[in-house]
Structure formats: structure tokens, C-alpha cells
Amino acid sequence: MKKTCLTFFVVMMVFTGLCQAQDSPRVIVEKYLDAVRSNDYDKAYSFISKTDTTIINWMKLIQYVKKIAPVRLAEIIDLAHNAARQEIMSTSVGNNTSLVKIHSKIPDMEETLRFTRNTEDIKSLLDRGALPTKERFGECTLVIEDGMWKISRVKGISADQAADIAADLAGHILGKDEAERIKKQIDEFLQKQEKGA
To answer: What is the pLDDT of residues 87-111, one digit of tens each?
Structure first.
């Protein structure tokens, strides 16, 4: 009897430990946001559901833009990413889904670029906490996939909006001709994504 109780107790401890080892939806979203901010896209992909291509396409677009962009533009994109701050406002969990609401403070690059286009000046503004920001609200929907919470949808910025922002940013920093060249390359990339290439 003692042996049976002990075995049952050990099995329950192991099972309980395994159940608690799974990260909560809140933790998954925080890890995803940290990975995106630090440009660790491989890590960010690990938090995304296999059923969603929208988020993956958005991240691939960011990687592509940084690859084709001149160094000056890529540096400013990195600065903007690193300066973004998100706060989890609420988390609700249902049977197999969860909704995580997020409040974001993101750099207002349009406002920033009105008075400087210099990367060092922008870094200085960021370091002093003087970089203009704007607030956004978004949400992540998560589902259980293979026993883990995965992000299946992000409501906020789309790949098309990100493409427009990148092209606009290029126009402010690099000039009209360079911005048009980059916009054309982004459009071609988006068309290939749409066709599944």
C-alpha cells in the first residue's frame, strides 16, 4: 500500500510539474515581443502557430527590408525596433484559446525625422528618453498547438502597413529616388509572398 501511494504521489508530482512547465500566454507574448525587438527572428518564429502566415510574412518582410536597405536606413529601423515598449494590459484564457491585450509605445519616426535624420542624434534622443513616441493598442490571439501556447493572430500592424512605413521612412532618410527603388523591391517581394514563392 505504501509503495502504491508513493508511486501515485511521484506520478502526480511529475505530471503537475510538466503541466506547470508550459509557459502562460502572457509569457509567450512577452518572449515573442522581446525576440522581435532584438531582431532574433528564429526565436520569434518559435512562438508562432503553424496555421498563421500573416505574422510570419510580416517578420519576413522586416528581414527583407533590412537586407536590401542601405546601412543608414537599417540602423534607424533597428533603433525604432529597440525603442518600442510594450505592456501586457490583460490576458484572458478560454478552453484552447487566449487573448492578450497589449499597450505599445512606439517611436514616432515621422515626428523624429522632422528635426533629425542622423542616426547618432536619434540614439541620443533615445538614450535621454526624449524620442517622440505614439501609443498603439493591439492584441495577440493564442491557441494550443502541440501542447504549447502559440500566437495565431496579431492585431496591430500588417505586412502591407509595414511596407508603407518602410517606404515612407526610406523617403525621409534616403530621398525620393532611393525610396522608389526600395518600394519597388518591397512590392515585388510582397507579390512573391502572395503567390507563395
So the answer is: 999 999 998 899 999 998 888 888 8
Q: Which residues pair with 153 in a beta bridge?
A: 141
In the chain, the amino acid numbered 107 is P
The CA distances from residue 124 to 70, 71, 86, 162, in Å, are 21, 18, 21, 25
Residue 101 phi/psi, 5-degree rounding, is -95, 140
- Give the tens place of pLDDT for each residue, 127-166: 888 888 888 888 999 999 989 999 998 887 655 566 667 7
> What is this structure's pTM?
0.75
Residue spans of the domains in the chain: they are 23-195
DSSP 8-state code for residue 48:
B
Fold of 23-195: Nuclear Transport Factor 2; Chain: A, (3.10.450)
Separate counts of helices (H) and strands (E) for the chain: 9, 4
Cell 536597405 locates to: 69
Answer yes or no: are the C-beta atoms of 153 and 140 closer than 8 Å: yes
